[in-house]
Amino acid sequence: MAAAQRSAGTTFRRSLLNPAALGYLAVVAAVWAWIAVDTLLVTHADASMAGVWGFFVTAPTSFLFASLPGPLPLVGAAVGALVQALALGAACRWATGRPRGHGRTSHA
User: Which of 10, 80, 99, 100 could share a disulfide with 58, CB 3.0–4.6 Å?
Assistant: First the structure.
């Protein structure tokens, strides 16, 4: 059972820590930083629609949480970013064709 848990953790880490997933998370962080600056430091004559972009960059997962009350839409955006980053990481690993045991040597 411990080997299966390590395998899932290793797969999670390898899918999340690659250039595609990290680049996507950097874009999401930049968008949310822009939203924070726009909300806190810029005065508008009417309401700003900058907050919508945080949900667009984490769609479609974040849209599942968008109509929930309280802070749950923001949790949905974080969950959406994580789900999309994992999907991008897995797709990147699949597209580059790296074998599962990359970096391991067999001493048989």
Answer: 80
Summarize pLDDT for 57-108 with one digit per residue, the tens: 998 888 888 888 988 888 989 999 999 999 998 898 888 875 555 555 555 5
Peptide bond into 60 cis (omega under 30): yes
Helix 19-41 vs helix 72-96: crossing angle, to nearest 10:
150
- Which stretches of 17-99 are DSSP H helices? 19-41, 52-56, 72-96
The reported pTM is: 0.74
Core vs surface per residue 8-40: b (16+ CB within 10 A) or e = eeeeeebbbebebbeebbeebeebbeebeeeee
Half-sphere exposure for 106 (CA within 13 Å, toward CB): 3
- Work out the number of other CB atoms within 10 angstroms of the CB of residue 44: 10
Looking at every residue in the chain, the average pLDDT score rounds to 82
